[in-house]
Write a structure and sequence with these properties.
The chain is mostly helical. It has one domain. 63% of the residues lie in helices and 0% in strands. The chain has helices spanning 6-20, 29-39, 50-58, 62-92, 95-103, 110-132, 153-159. Helix 1 (6-20) packs parallel to helix 4 (62-92) and helix 4 (62-92) packs antiparallel against helix 5. The longest helix is centred in the middle third of the chain and has 31 residues, at 62-92.
Length: 167
Amino acid sequence: MSHFRPWFAGLTLAQLNLRAVGLDPDSGVEKRLTALAVKDHKPIEGLETLEEQLGLLANLPPKQEKELVTYMLADAEHISDEVDSLLTAWRAGNSAALDALLTKDLSEHPNLIKPLTTDRNRKWVPKIEQLLNDSKDYLVVVGALHLVGKESVIDLLQRDGHKVQQL
């Protein structure tokens, strides 16, 4: 992995670790919903492009990139202990438990929270609001970390006067 940028090596190690604890990226929510949308001939649009996602990581300053890799490696050490708790909270829609589990370690890295979640959430909310103002129905899917805590997509939508209700 020495020929890869640290962020890419870190993501690769994180993916390998998730596979080791039994999580298959091909069975994830995004893959399943994408397959259903394709099967039903429904259009798929992203809140950001793959290039934007990778660019975000590729353009992190060296100090933040090192912090990201350090966080990923530390997280990898205890992810196997938390996978069941995360999945249980997610399946139950327990946003308080998700918030606690997802942000407990990340809160120690405010320099990562801003570019990885807060800035992206702020960029996405106007796009989501455009969808809300359209007469068509849409399904918006984001990662769980974008739905919890201060400056989450939900928090920002509520601040803009939208009623957000968990079903």
